[in-house]
């Protein structure tokens, strides 16, 4: 099945390129499922064609955190470094870090949409993980070290912003209690305010990643983030 998928993907790519012989803004799709060899073959086939970048598909559909790096590397190790690599399906901070470590350049923003619809707000630190003393009340706040559930009753009278010192419009002008109220009465403004904050926070996360790469300490940044997350989950258990 994976072989057929790769064969058809390459065939369709050739048909698209044939319709634009002068070249165009075409991203070649990389597929292959959980088969490392087919992933590698697809990447090698697409890499020799006249494309403007690469779209890596089929991730975030059930593969484990442990097996994902080898699948990603099977793709990125066989792609030229001059063109952008985009991936869909990886949105959790840990997943994004795995993608960046493998050489992925672009990510979709569906994660922010799903967070917002669920009533969640991103809260994890953006200061390279040096300061992680957030003192969450796990059972009440539904926190997993990266986000909080603003539908929780604990926020009904919480007059503080989502994240202290956050400079987004939502945190500068509104409180957790107000957003909790909006969510509970099904007011659409709740999603707007959450979308503003979550987008701002997510962009800040990517800014921290770029800074870590620029300073040559991305591996350390990733390790600290993942370790902090694991410690939090262990405490929750």
Poorly predicted runs of 5 or more residues:
129-140
Class derived from helix and strand content: alpha/beta
Tell me the β content: 5-15%
Q: How many beta-strand runs? A: 6
Give me the number of helical elements: 10
Key phrases:
alpha/beta; 6 strands; Queuine_tRNA-ribosyltrfase; tRNA_ribo_trans-like; two-stranded antiparallel ribbon; TGT-like_sf; 2 domains; tRNA-guanine(15) transglycosylase-like domain-containing protein; Rossmann fold; 237 residues; elongated; four-stranded parallel beta sheet
In short:
The protein is built from ten helices and six strands, in the order αβαβαβαβαβαβαααα.
Description:
InterPro entries: Queuine_tRNA-ribosyltrfase (IPR050852), TGT-like_sf (IPR036511), tRNA_ribo_trans-like (IPR002616). With 237 residues, this protein is of the alpha/beta class. It has two domains: 107 residues, Rossmann fold (3-Layer(aba) Sandwich), CATH 3.40.50; 125 residues, no CATH class. Helix content is 51%, strand content 8%. It contains ten helices and six strands, in the order αβαβαβαβαβαβαααα. The longest helix is centred in the last third of the chain and has 26 residues. The radius of gyration is 20 Å and the shape is elongated.
């Amino acid at each position: 099945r994976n072989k057929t998928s790769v064969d058809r993907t390459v065939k369709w790519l050739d048909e698209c390129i044939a319709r634009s012989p002068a070249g165009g803004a075409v991203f070649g799709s990389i597929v292959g499922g959980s088969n490392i060899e087919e992933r590698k073959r697809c990447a090698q086939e697409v890499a020799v064609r006249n494309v403007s970048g690469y779209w890596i598909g089929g991730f975030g559909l059930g593969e484990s955190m442990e097996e994902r790096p080898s699948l990603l590397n099977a793709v990125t190790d066989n792609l030229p470094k001059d063109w952008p690599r985009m991936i869909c399906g990886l949105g959790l901070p840990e997943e994004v870090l795995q993608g960046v470590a493998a050489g992925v350049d672009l990510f979709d923003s569906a994660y922010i949409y799903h967070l917002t619809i669920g009533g969640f707000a991103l809260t994890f630190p953006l200061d390279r993980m040096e300061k992680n003393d957030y003192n969450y009340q796990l059972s009440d706040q539904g926190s997993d070290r990266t986000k909080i559930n603003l539908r929780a009753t604990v926020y009904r009278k919480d007059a503080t912003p989502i994240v202290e010192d956050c400079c987004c419009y939502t945190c500068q002008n509104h409180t957790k209690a107000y957003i909790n109220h909006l969510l509970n009465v099904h007011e659409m403004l709740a999603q707007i305010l959450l979308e503003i904050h979550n987008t701002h926070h997510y962009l800040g996360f990517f800014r921290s990643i770029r800074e870590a790469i620029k300073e040559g300490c991305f591996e350390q940044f990733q390790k600290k983030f993942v370790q902090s997350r694991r410690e939090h989950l262990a405490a929750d258990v």
